[in-house]
Amino acid sequence: MDNIVRNMVSEHIMGWQQKTVRNNENDAPYYANYWLDANGEKQRPVNFWKPDLDLTDAFRVIEVLRERDIFITIETCRNGFKSYHNGIFATESESSTLAICIASLKSIDIEISDEYSVLK
Known about the structure:
Elements: H1 4-13, E1 17-22, E2 31-36, E3 42-45, H2 55-66, E4 72-77, E5 80-85, E6 88-93, H3 96-107
Antiparallel strand pairs: 1-2, 2-3, 4-5, 5-6
Helix pairs in contact: 1-3, 2-3
């Protein structure tokens, strides 16, 4: 899968911006792409932040939303997982992490193409 869902979650849910910054403390000329928060602090290297694939990253998204009184729930079903935001059905997916990401985006009224949420 491409990074559309991942980037949307990073920008719209986490409030991060992607930037190329120095990747060391010694001023050597090494640069890397990072997600930076609103204060310009490095959060995660872009290539290591994968909330659509990694359960730890997906739960960090859930925690951020919980602080805003938005509650993501997930349940198992015959074909994978169903996700909800504040009790409203969001999607059904073979992937728990993708179901979490899609519910998080829908919780702030960002619609996402069915190609990302439909069982394949």
